[in-house]
Amino acid sequence: MKILRPIGGAAGIFFPVGLPNNGGTCQYATKTCLRECYAISDKDYDEELNVLEVDKRVIYEYFMNEHIFTICAEIVREMKELQTHILHWFASGDCLDTDIERIVKIARYLFYEHIKQNGFTRNIHLWNKFMCIPVRIVLTLENKEDIKLHALPIGVYAIPDYKNTYTDIYTVSGSSGSCGLRKFVLNKQKRISSTPNCKYCDRKKVGCFARKGIGDE
After folding, report:
1. Residue closest to 7 by CA, chosen among 87, 113, 107
2. Does the first or last residue of the chain, that is N or C, have fewer Cβ atoms within 10 Å of its Cβ?
């Protein structure tokens, strides 16, 4: 089984959705987040997100149990197949506290392999760790006012707009665009279309790529 899946011009890592006591990896998910989550496989959003939970579990177990060098070599190989230079962490799911050190080690090794990385997390402990390496992990919060509680000069923050199915992205200096799913109408029926593209944001230095990280040119 492939451990990466295509998503918005990047190679996505899909972990199980939900709270840890239900087998998920979303340790810090809010009730609203769990109810509205776009990555739940039975929601009609976008085909790229339609990854079965059983497959996400296999992918997660691979990341937790294989040797780190083996994992990184497989990531590099699959990214070449997908023809992308961007790795998107937590296309579904998140990082448990118990997994932080392992995830950071993988990300740091991939940095030395010149892999550009981004993603979203609610785990502030992981987010703080990633401030020391150029990985564009965005801290997801529920309200814009919460940014003041965690504001760092190089931090990037996401505020979900559940009603409109996309996420507003901010730096401490203000808005940096948005990322997510957009609604459109086809044949008098509501449909959902995924419009973001990580390669575009990387080129324009907006969204996840708004801040200049350590080691950037």
Report:
1. 87
2. C
What are the pLDDT digits (tens) for 150-185?
A: 766 678 889 988 887 788 888 877 777 778 765 544
* Tens digits of residue pLDDT in 188-205: 555 444 457 888 888 888
pTM of this structure: 0.86
Cβ atoms of 116 and 86 within 8 Å: the answer is: yes
Q: What CA–CA distances, in Å, run from 54 to 57, 58, 98, 101? A: 5, 7, 21, 24
Mean pLDDT of the chain: 84
Alpha carbon distances (Å) from 42 to 28, 50, 174:
22, 8, 35
Residue 48 to residues 40, 74, 80, 125, 137, Cα–Cα distance (Å): 12, 20, 18, 29, 20
Q: What are the sequence ranges of the domains in the chain?
A: 5-209
CB 202 within 8 A of CB 116: yes
Sequence-distant contacts of 64-72: CB under 8 A, at least 24 apart: 64/99, 64/102, 68/102, 68/105, 68/106, 68/109, 69/109, 71/3, 71/106, 72/106, 72/109, 72/110, 72/113
188 Rama class: left (phi>0) / alpha (psi -120 to 50) / beta: left
Contact by Cβ (8 Å): 217, 114 = no
Q: Quick check: 59 and 74 in contact, CB under 8 A?
A: no
